[in-house]
Amino acid sequence: MVEVPAVAVELVELLAVTLGAGAAAAVGVVLERFGLSAVSGGDLVLGAWAVGMGLLALYVGVVGLGYEQALPRLRRLASGE
Asked: Which domain of life is it from (predicted)?
């Protein structure tokens, strides 16, 4: 069985979390834009739903995955732990 170095595993995890954070944030931005265009077009229910889901996706991407997951992993790798 091949032993994978811990640093390689940590780098793969950091890459996955970073890609997930970027994808969630991008979905959030798209939903926000769609929600605002729906509200300006007169569909308040759909617009409010899209804005709410966009805010949730932005929170998950920026705070949940970015600030709470990716940043500590990056600091841990940078310090050499």
From this structure: Archaea
pLDDT in tens, the chain (81 residues): 788 888 889 999 999 999 999 999 999 999 999 999 999 999 999 999 999 999 999 999 999 999 999 999 999 988 877
Q: pTM for the complete prediction?
A: 0.86
Rounded-to-integer distance, Cα 26 and Cα 20, Å? 10
